[in-house]
Amino acid sequence: MRFDVNQTDFPSVFQKKIWKRGIAVMPLDITLNGINDSEMREGLTQIYSFMMEFFWDMYNNPEKHSNVPYKSTEHYVRAIMNESKTTMNNKYPLLKEYMDNFFSLVWSLKPKAAAHNWGIVQMCDFRCFNKADKKAKTQDVDDLLYTLSDKNRKCFKELHEYVTEKGAKKESGRYRYKYKGEHIISFDWKPSIFISYKIKSGNSFESFVWELNKQPDKVDLLDYIQKETTICNHCGLSTCKDYVEFLICTPRNRKRHHHFVVVDTNKIKIGGMEINRGCLHHLDDITQPFTDEEIKMMKRLIDIRFSQIGNA
Question: Are residues 131 and 111 in the same domain?
């Protein structure tokens, strides 16, 4: 049984984290497509069944799993496999063999894909066993969309189409888009949306604000940036290095410190305005959808980003 991507209420923080892992597991009708070997299909199906059973047991009986490390899906699986060898061998006799094969194959992928091997494992993306299917190595935008709620899926797809129609290209293996060598926008699974203001030459944010000030709706745009976006706190974590010059957009009516390490006094004055700043590393999972008004404002910021790059 699949987890409900539209769920918004959770009994505990731990169960919300498990739900987030559960919705990331890809359906078998996608991941087994094109794999014809019957034993391989059965072995990979056992991985999927084991993972879903495991996540549901963690969600429904969190007290049983308080000592299971949360660091990664692989840690989850390795820990539970060590604790349940008898049950595993009886119910899922091919599990260990194909789980070992799966991990080995994922970690052996070429460098560009290796940076995202954790995502392939977490999603149980067995397409890497199908040499003719390259999607598991490039992470198609649909691989992100299926984990989102119906409303956020509509939002992300709309923004994806908006930037690609303007000429931006999605980077291979990432949910990040470039135009003329400059980043435009990035998506993640939180879900959050990151709109870049960095340029290779000149004063990045000041040039973004200069373009913004030419807009007829500049007052609304400035208000949106100051109240509804956050920028990186420059904490120095290597995991955040790609997002230090982005406006981070999260759904409205959620206090910033619910998702970031941010307080009212933690602001930075940049480009003539004060903006919230916080640590992306501590961004919480968000279940509230983006509103139509927020989507409209993000599109306007994207327009400004394209103009900034065009005039650089």
Answer: yes
Q: Are 226 and 273 in contact (CB under 8 A)?
A: yes
Is the domain of 83 the same as that of 208? no
Q: Are residues 195 and 265 in the same domain?
A: yes
- What's the structural domain count of the chain? 2
Indicate if the alpha-carbon torsion angle 85, 91, 96, 97 is positive or negative.
positive
> Quick one: which of 267, 248, 246 has its CA closest to 198?
246
> Are 255 and 107 in a shared domain?
no
What tokens does 308 get? 């900034």
87 and 218 co-located in one domain: no
Whether residues 105 and 230 share a domain: the answer is: no
Q: Are residues 164 and 135 in the same domain?
A: no
Q: How many H-runs (helices) and E-runs (strands) does the chain carry?
A: 14, 8
Q: Sort strands 229-232 and 273-278 into parallel, antiparallel or unpaired.
A: parallel
User: Among residues 139, 162, 181, which one ends one of the domains?
Assistant: 139
What per-residue string of b and e applies to 229-266 under the rule 16 or more CB within 10 Å gives b? bbbbbeeeeeebebbebbbbbbbeeeebeebbbbeeeb
Model pTM score = 0.76
**Which of 139, 168, 196 is at the close of a domain?**
139
Residues 6 or more apart whose Cβ sits within 8 Å of residue 67: none
Task: For the chain, 312 residues long, give each residue's pLDDT as a single digit of tens.
Answer: 789 999 988 999 889 888 988 998 989 998 898 899 999 999 999 999 988 988 898 899 988 876 665 555 566 666 666 666 656 667 888 988 898 898 888 877 764 544 456 677 778 889 888 876 555 555 667 777 888 888 888 898 999 999 999 999 988 666 789 999 999 998 876 678 889 988 876 668 888 889 999 999 999 998 888 888 877 665 555 555 555 678 888 776 444 433 333 334 455 555 566 776 666 555 555 567 888 999 999 999 999 999 999 887
236 shares its domain with 259:
yes
